[in-house]
């Protein structure tokens, strides 16, 4: 009795030891690669292609005997060969309503010639889980623009809580729909590429890279000559409409005691504004006009008695 038990145990251990060898030998016949990404983008039909590459490596494999299958949702489904390819196979899986994940593995069955007969073989992949994303960014409408330009982002799953960041700087954002966002290029130095990201309650999405091109701000008149207490007008204009919230223009001077003027803000939706400049103490110098993404402007100013 003990001898019979011992023989049975030996057979079990032998089977366990030989299983990896059998799998290795099967791998020498067939090379099986699952090419399906782990994350897929949602689509209206809820249909997703699961793709595998099956390459015959051994001439002992009988022609026409290779049959790839996918085991998914507890059922075996035949995979079909991709037209024009000898090694690519796919299966169109329809994700059930209310689900965004599915687990599966691929099994290839085939027949192999031996010295005395034909044997049936099979080789599986590991179990894999695919996840369907309902929120993603596809692309920017354009990849370069000057400051103040309205740029759209196409994607899926956008909400009113989403905010666009350009190079880490917040941009005025407008939620148009679940598939489209728009933002205004913020005032940043021109001639550089900036990463564009979408921040929301559901995490962060990359929308690509945007290059900010140089633009120009016009200031008129090109110089000022005032008497102490006299007022003049400076007009500021830009080529595109200012974004929601307006566009603040920085004006500094090297003769602060000679110049009295308010902050300069181009109102939202407008392309120009004007401010009053009053002469203070006598002196001469410059007004320096700066706006991120626009060429700097220097306005000479003279204040006399």
UniProtKB/TrEMBL annotation:
<dbReference type="InterPro" id="IPR013783">
    <property type="entry name" value="Ig-like_fold"/>
</dbReference>
<dbReference type="InterPro" id="IPR002909">
    <property type="entry name" value="IPT_dom"/>
</dbReference>
<dbReference type="InterPro" id="IPR014756">
    <property type="entry name" value="Ig_E-set"/>
</dbReference>
<protein>
    <submittedName>
        <fullName>IPT/TIG domain-containing protein</fullName>
    </submittedName>
</protein>
<dbReference type="Pfam" id="PF01833">
    <property type="entry name" value="TIG"/>
</dbReference>
<feature type="domain" description="IPT/TIG">
    <location>
        <begin position="144"/>
        <end position="199"/>
    </location>
</feature>
């Amino acid at each position: 009795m003990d001898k019979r038990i011992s023989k049975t145990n030996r057979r079990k251990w032998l089977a366990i030891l030989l299983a990896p060898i059998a799998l290795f030998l099967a791998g020498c016949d067939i090379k099986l690669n699952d090419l399906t990404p782990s994350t897929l983008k949602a689509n209206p039909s809820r249909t997703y292609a699961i793709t595998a590459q099956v390459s015959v490596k051994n001439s002992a494999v009988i022609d026409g005997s290779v049959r790839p299958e996918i085991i998914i949702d507890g059922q075996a489904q035949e995979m079909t060969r991709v037209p024009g390819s000898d090694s690519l196979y796919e299966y169109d899986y329809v994700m059930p309503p209310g689900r965004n994940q599915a687990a599966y593995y691929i099994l290839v069955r085939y027949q192999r010639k031996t010295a005395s007969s034909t044997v049936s073989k099979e080789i599986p992949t590991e179990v894999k889980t695919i996840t369907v994303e309902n929120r993603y960014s596809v692309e920017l409408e354009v990849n370069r623009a000057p400051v103040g330009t309205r740029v759209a982002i196409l994607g899926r799953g956008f909400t009113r809580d989403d905010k666009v960041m350009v190079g880490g700087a917040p941009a005025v954002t407008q939620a148009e729909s679940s598939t489209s966002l728009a933002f205004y290029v913020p005032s940043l130095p021109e001639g550089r590429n900036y990463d564009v990201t979408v921040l929301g309650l559901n995490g962060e999405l990359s929308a690509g890279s945007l290059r900010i091109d140089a633009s120009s701000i016009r200031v008129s008149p090109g110089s000022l000559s005032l008497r102490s207490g006299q007022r003049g007008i400076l007009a500021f204009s830009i080529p595109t409409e200012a974004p929601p919230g307006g566009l603040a223009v920085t004006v500094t001077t090297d003769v602060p005691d000679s110049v009295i003027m308010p902050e300069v803000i181009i109102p939202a939706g407008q392309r120009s504004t004007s401010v009053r400049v009053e002469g203070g103490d006598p002196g001469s110098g410059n007004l320096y006009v700066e706006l991120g993404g626009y060429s700097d402007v220097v306005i000479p100013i003279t204040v006399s008695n």
